[in-house]
Structure formats: structure tokens, C-alpha cells
Write the C-alpha cells for this entry.
Amino acid sequence: MRVTRDIPVRARDGVVLRTDHYAPAAPDAPTVLIRTPYGRGGPLRLLGRLLAARGQHAVIQSCRGTGGSGGTFAPLVHERDDGSDTLDWLRRQPWWAGALGMFGVSYQGFAQWALAADAGDDLRAMVAVVTASATRDSTYAGESFALDTVLTWAELLHAQTVPWLARQWELKRGQPRLAAALEHLPLADADRVATGVTIPFFQEWLRHHTPDAPYWRTRVFADRVARVRAPVIMVTGWHDIFLPAQLDDHATLRAAGARPRLVIGPWTHGSPGLFVAALREGLAWLDTHLAPAGRRARESAATPVRLYVGGRGGGWRDLPDWPPPAVDTAWHLHPGGELATRPPVPSTPDEFRYDPADPTPSLGGPLLVAQRAGAFDNRRVEARPDVLTYTSAPLSRPVEVIGPVRADIHVRGELPYLDVFVRLCDVDRRGRSWNVCDGLVRVTPERFPADPSGALRVPVPLWPTAYRFAAGHRLRVQVSGGAHPRWARNPGSGESLGTAVTLRAGWRQVFHDPERPSALVLPVVHCGSAQDSCL
């Protein structure tokens, strides 16, 4: 192969985008484009060589304002135009053969979706790994703010501009500046605490957080997904930060008549297993769909959906589509901390007090940093007085759950501003409580109507899952007022997201009576011969 580095590709406004080209020996080879804000070395250098060794031109470009490219990096702002300008440059190269593939992890995938609908028939294949076409809903999941993800990412991007030794020292110390920033108020100062500088996009995301903010209209590409006709493979994990948004893209493609391939494994956003799977699945996908037509017909027999079912007795499954047929089964909250499928009975509500000065901590789940993400034993969090738990009897038979998970929680708060966090756990025979999936919704006075008693019905979408609860295990549902710093704490004062400093504690009541039946709804695909046979 032949490698040419730091090629200056000029965008329409004159900004130079630095680009590396890994050229294969064979003529008339297809091209794979990767646009990234994370530099062109390390794993991407390996990927470039792997692609070229397989007979494909690998073109790896640093997004503007990163990796030596000119201009200023502004997330999601320039990727459509810069991607189009780069494609125009590719079409003018003597080695261009008219066939384009794209490969991208996380932000690299956003850059793919920004360009995909404009690439026309030249685009023959996409590999989208732990990514989505729209970031707005992931940033403000449940209309809260994904503080840990956003601030950690901002700090990571800034770290690329500091000397290598200084960065290694900060990592060795455990990133104390980032830890302090995650606890800091107001949030508008948190970027300076973490990095020493003001980060424009972090400030903008704090200001433009409402659902109708015009700011996001040009920064999401979900309305363009249905126009993409190239074959797409999506690789993600059950504890990935973008999983719900990526499954929305999958649903959009399916509704448009496309047949994307979906692979979901037991991975977090940055886990090594994800990287290996992305290479294996992605390279095979590009080999197949960038190959001549006859070879594509012979080699495109992969199942549409391959997913890993967690828990004892799970493992890899091949499915014809997502989600599979399932029976929505309500597990009702009952007095005394019980969780059961039988209907609720008259009862008094349970109470807890949420104090934003000592916010309920987050533990594991979908986080940006792989070492802190995934499944953990939740007992130390469940022991807190601000966490309610509801636990089933031991299962007499395995319960297998695959698909979207949701909860309906009827709650009354002392304050009109509050969060509702719901987590599903698997309690093993030793009493350890392992988180499976969760979700959070932010409540404001105008968002959910109250009944005559002042109680609100709050629907909480949880992360989708595929999990097998073993016989002898128990299901557990946590209900609390937050999960900090994964989500920004709710100050209880109604102040603006970026400037809030007043912290107000208040009592919450969770109802579980026939008129206000709080429940978790699970998509059960296997549970013996009937629901009750599982208990």
C-alpha cells in the first residue's frame, strides 16, 4: 500500500481539512471515508492499513478545528458541508472508482449521517457504530441534561490540545478537575473548572435546552435518514449512551423499506469488545457491499438482527427484525416494596425525600467512559433513604425480556420541579442487584397534568434491553429522584439549567393503588406457558 499524510483538502470557505490516504495496490478500488475529530493516529491508522490491505482506498480526515485541520470545531455545524466538499474532492481524484463506503464510531457516525443523504448513488455502504443521526434527544434524555456524557466529552476534546505528559499526569491522578466540575454549580462554570477554558458548545447546549430550540434544527439529521438507500450496518451495545437514538434510526430505515443490519452486544460506549466487533462486522460489511454486484448477491445473507441476551442462559441470538414479537407484561409496584404481576390493591403511597445538595448518585449504566459504565452491584445505592425499591418473589422459571422497556410512575411532589428515575435490576441468589436498564424524566409544572389529588402520571422510557432473568432470581425496580452526575441534578427551584444555584429539597410520594397503578412494563418473549407460571 501507499500512504500519503496531511493532504490539504480545501472546503468551500477556504478552510483546509487535513487528510490521510491509504492507497491499495489494486486499480479501480472503492473508497472508504472516515471523518473524525479525534486525530488520525492510533486505531484509525490501524483501520486505514486494514482497509487498504483489503483492496480499498482509506481516506481519513480530521474534522475542522481538530487534528491539524483549520477552522474552529463546532459540533455538528460543518459536517454536512465539509463532508460534501470532501466527496467532491474524492470524485476529482484519478484513483476514484465511483464507489464510496463510510465507517464511523460515535461522532464519526454523526459525520456519516450528515453526508449520507447527499452522497447519491456513489454511496454503497455505511458502518455506523454506537452513533445516531440526531444527538439532541440523547443530550437531553427525558428533558434533563446528560451532564456526565457532555462534560466528559468536552474535557476529552480539550485534552487533545494539551501536552501529552500533562494529560498523562491528569489521568494518573484520576481526573480530579473533571470530578470537581461534575459536582460544581452553576453548570455554566463547569467547563472552566474541568479544563481551565470556556468551551463554546458546552455553553450553547446549556442555553438551548428546550425541546423547541431552533438551535438544534440544523444540528440533527434524523429527517434525512429515510433518504439513504445504501446498505447500513449498525453496531451498538446495551449500555451505550446513544442506543435509543440509534434504534430510532433503525426504525426509520425499516419504515422506508430498507434492510439495515443491527448488531447489539454486551458492550458500553468505549469497551474493547465493541472495538473488536466493529472491526469484524464493519470490515465484512464493506467487503460485501463494495464488491462487484455478482459477489454482493452471493455474500449478503447475514441475518438482519443479531443481539446478545444478557443474564444466565442468554447468549447470541439471530432475529428477523427488531423488536421481536413480545407480550407487554406489567409488573406493578405494591406496598411493602413488592413487585408483582397481579393488579394493585388499595394502599398508601411510599415516600422519600430528595435533596439536590446530596443528590442520589448514578452507578454504572450507559456512560461515555467504559470503565465506569455497564452493570454494577447496586446494593449501596439501594440502601440510601432516597431510593425506593420494589422486588419480586424468586422466579420459578426464567423470564426472557427483549425490546423496549417503559414505566408509568404516579408521583406527587412537595415541589413542582422534580425528576423521576427508574431502574430495572436483576437480583441474583446472593442478593446482588445488577442494573439491566433505566431511564429518567424531568417534570415541570406544565409538562404532566395532575389529577385532583395532585398526583402526576409520569411515563418513563427506559433503555431497551435483551435479558434473561434466571429461575431463582428476582426482578427489582428502583424509583428515585435522580442519578447524578449521569444526569444533572434537579435543583428543585425551577431555575435555568446553566445558572441554577438554589437547591431545594422536597418529599416525593409514589402511588401504587388501583386508581394510580405505578408499574414497569416489560416485553416478555418467554415465560413458561403463562405469566403467573414465572412466579
In short: The domain at 327-534 is CATH 2.60.120.260 (Jelly Rolls).
